[in-house]
């Protein structure tokens, strides 16, 4: 009785279809899950070639590798842009905050100098100048500490990122091995492919990658310049080592199968953003604040060296001192410098004492507010105030541009995910309809079996 076999095959197919639909529903919210679809075909043969029921050929994973690769690419751009925007925003905030703004400190120092013009002998106004000078050096120290803290955070994040990337590379290599083991049978579990795609997606957020699928189902992964990260079952390892030229900085390298590749940090993703920010924006900010500290100290010390103190004598020490190897961190009012040492006057004849009450040199100090100085870190000449305002403006522009790029990259990632999901994501409405259809198929096939049983019983009674 062929229709009994037809019913049994239909029952089996309906059960499998219900199982696939229920699995889709259960994983509707699982990250990286691709919906599955049962594959059926009609069995050949049967009565006069009318067929011999239905057979289950397998379960198909609904995925478009082109759309998946687009998600990986968008992931890389979003990872890079958001990480860079975050650090640039912090730097702009550091330079622009009320407690560390150098322009505000310079304005207060110049105001104190102007207040001393009418009474250059007044010890109280002199002390006011000294207090504002110390407050200004404190602002440099605050910015320096903020930049130092950022560098430590970046280096710590680099270490954590490299460790995380290495774990993901090893995970992908292990998944490749499992997939390779199923290739011979031609039945690779869809969940295994989903797991690998999800692992690659997580990796793509950290570094920019290129992928190639091999005939055995494994996936090779390289950096854009061709350095291998995963080759079949073998995973590479990223390493960080101190930069001999700058011990504060770490250098990146890649080890694969006994071969070492020295990388410049231009690897894209979050890891690439950390190197890019550190080697460019952070370094430029450090160079500027150090140069500004030196220009400030040298300019004031140079003018004061030409004057006479409250007692009409040539100054015995500089107002500002610093270590040329680390200017912003070490800038300070020289130890032992007192208010009466401020050289506000000038000697009429070189080598002779000046006249108490003279403010000639004080006027030269006030004039520093308008004096143009050459700033190599900015590539231009500017006053001390103008230089800081220029740097703050640059940071603001870079920060806003980075934020816009981050928003654009995240928007592109959302669009890529939506395109992928339009093909691969589970539609609960669709699966609910499928459940009804498969349930009806099951019931109809059960009816066929029941009818076959009744006909068989009738035939037995006839005998």
Automatic annotation (TrEMBL):
Location of the Flagellar hook-associated protein FlgK helical domain: 89-320
Residue ranges constituting the Flagellar basal body rod protein N-terminal domain according to the UniProt record: 4-33
Gene that specifies this protein: flgK
Phylogenetic lineage: Bacteria, Pseudomonadati, Pseudomonadota, Gammaproteobacteria, Alteromonadales
Stored Pfam families: Flg_bb_rod (PF00460), Flg_bbr_C (PF06429), FlgK_D1 (PF22638)
Signal peptide range: none
PROSITE patterns assigned: FLAGELLA_BB_ROD
Superkingdom per UniProt: Bacteria
Entry protein name: Flagellar hook-associated protein 1
Keyword annotations: Bacterial flagellum, Cell projection, Cilium, Flagellum, Secreted
Subcellular location(s) of the protein: Bacterial flagellum; Secreted
Organism annotation: Ferrimonas pelagia
Xref: NCBIfam families: flgK_ends
Keyword Calcium attributed: no
Span of domain Flagellar basal-body/hook protein C-terminal: 423-460
UniProt record similarity statement: Belongs to the flagella basal body rod proteins family.
